[in-house]
Each structure stands twice: as structure tokens, then as C-alpha cells.
UniProtKB/TrEMBL annotation, chains A, B:
Coiled coil: none annotated. Pfam families: Penicillinase_R (PF03965). It comes from Rheinheimera baltica. The keyword Transcription applies. This is BlaI/MecI/CopY family transcriptional regulator.
DNA sequence: GCATGTTGATTACATCTGTAATAGTATGTG
DNA sequence: CACATACTATTACAGATGTAATCAACATGC
């Protein structure tokens, strides 16, 4: 299981958005969210390559990086591990926390209802 | 914001369950989940005290530890930060991931339905 | 062709983490 | 009282992380 640190994740997210891209593209893509030094970003790219999270092709002098794992897979893996650790694997209590903090927005709820409907559908026809 | 590492979290979870308790109680409480050396657990307790996550009262020679932050607060804080980082603050996509992996269990769904019902109720009467 | 700048590679360094071992201190036992 | 015990406090040490600086290689403008 590839472990991606917090800082590295920010880089991955840029690469997931638009790929492949150069180190400079990544630096630009990070924008104002992070104002890391250029060298810092290069280091993170390097580490991500070492970890097997990114691959690259040479484009003359520069590299063009692309993800080796999808954002979806990463999200799933992390979600499961997070919910396992903090909520004993149950997702409902997490959502309950959001609800209690008024962090649920109408379209969140709409999507949840849809999910549940689909899930129930699924239960029936098999 | 107090940062609790993974290993430290396991200790916190024991203390949240039953408090206050001694270092030995914690060691016993960790049970088979972790088979850390006694010294390791003491180190973790120490760090948690330094971080302000645990307090203690002396009980003769030994300390009795108790949490300075509630599990609820920690869960909320971590959930928000997790969902912000990976899902741009939207909780529904996280649940969708669970659904897609068949990780939703009937009682999860039941609780979610209840949450939504409550939420809608809330929306109406204010 | 040579100085320069650009790009990746290597090295740096403090802090945090996981995982203990050792030191210091108080306490109970004979 | 002296010693073994039982705790906590301090120290250790390697790997991960955040955050860069320096090095090396190569292309480019004079």
C-alpha cells in the first residue's frame, strides 16, 4: 500500500487533475494553495516517483509526470482506513458528525438519498 | 489543533473507553490489538500528556490518566479535515465509495436514512 | 566554445513517529 | 536501614516528512 503524505497529496491532486504535466506545470497548478519553493515541489515529485505513485516520460530536458494510481483508488483506500480507524468501519457515525455540525448541504443530502435508493434497489434484485 | 499519531490514537481509544486508568490498565486494554512493549506504551502516554491530549492525577506511585479531549471532538475534527482534504468537503462522495465497494451494511443504511430524515425535519421547522 | 540558466539528482536538516532501553526516584519488604 | 520493585522521566535511534539548498548535466545565447 503506497503511503502518500499530506504535502505529497497536494502534488498528486494537481497531477490527477491534468496529466501528464511537467514539474513547472505542477508548481503553477499548486497556485496559491501552497507557496512552496520550487525545490520543495521537485523533492515531492521525486519522492512520489520513488514511492511508485507517479511515473514520467522524458520530454527533452524535462519530465512529464503522470499518476500510477487513480484518485478513486486512493480515495477508497484512504476512506476505508480512516473509517476503520476512527469509526470501527461504520460510515454512518461519520455522517452523523457532519450532520451535527450542520455540515450537510442540500445537495449532499440529495446525493445520499440517491445512494441509499440505489443500494436498496441493489439489495432487492439479487 | 492537537495532532495525534496513529499509535497514539490506539492509546487514546483505550482511555476514552474507560477513564481514568493507569498505564497498566492501558497496556491491558490494548490487549492483543497491539503487542507493544510496556515501555512503548509508556512513551506514548508521555507524548500524549506533552501534547495536551491526556491529563493525569497521581495515585500514589502511579498516574491515573484521563482524556483532555473527547472522542467526539476528535472524530469531528478529523472527519472534517479528512473530507476537506480528499473530497473537497463533501461527505456524499465518500459514502458513495463505500457503497461501490459493498461496504454499506443494512444498519449503516438504516442510520443514514434516519439521519436524512432528521435533517429534513430540521430544515422544515426553522 | 563558454558562461548561464534550467532541470532533475543528491544531500541537508529539524521534527515527528514507532519502538524501545536506560536512568532516576519513590516505595514496600525483610 | 538496604535492597529490590515499580513507576515515571530521559535518552536512543532509524525512518518519514516538511522544506529546501547544492550538485551535476545539458541546452542556449552570445
Amino acid at each position: 500500500m503506497i503511503e502518500i503524505s499530506n504535502a505529497e497529496l497536494s502534488v498528486m491532486q494537481v497531477v490527477w487533475q491534468r496529466q501528464p504535466l511537467s514539474a513547472n506545470d505542477v508548481i503553477a497548478g499548486l497556485g496559491d494553495d501552497n507557496d512552496w519553493h520550487e525545490k520543495t515541489v521537485k523533492t515531492l515529485l521525486n519522492r512520489l516517483v520513488s514511492k511508485g505513485a507517479l511515473g514520467f516520460n522524458k520530454d527533452g530536458r524535462a519530465y512529464l509526470y503522470y499518476p500510477l494510481i487513480t484518485e478513486q483508488d486512493y480515495q477508497l483506500q484512504q476512506s476505508r482506513s480512516f473509517v476503520d480507524r476512527l469509526f470501527a468501519g461504520k460510515v454512518a457515525p461519520l455522517v452523523a458528525g457532519f450532520a451535527s455540525q450542520n455540515k450537510l448541504k442540500p445537495d449532499d443530502v440529495q446525493q445520499l438519498k440517491q445512494l441509499i435508493a440505489d443500494w436498496e434497489q441493489e439489495q432487492n434484485h439479487d
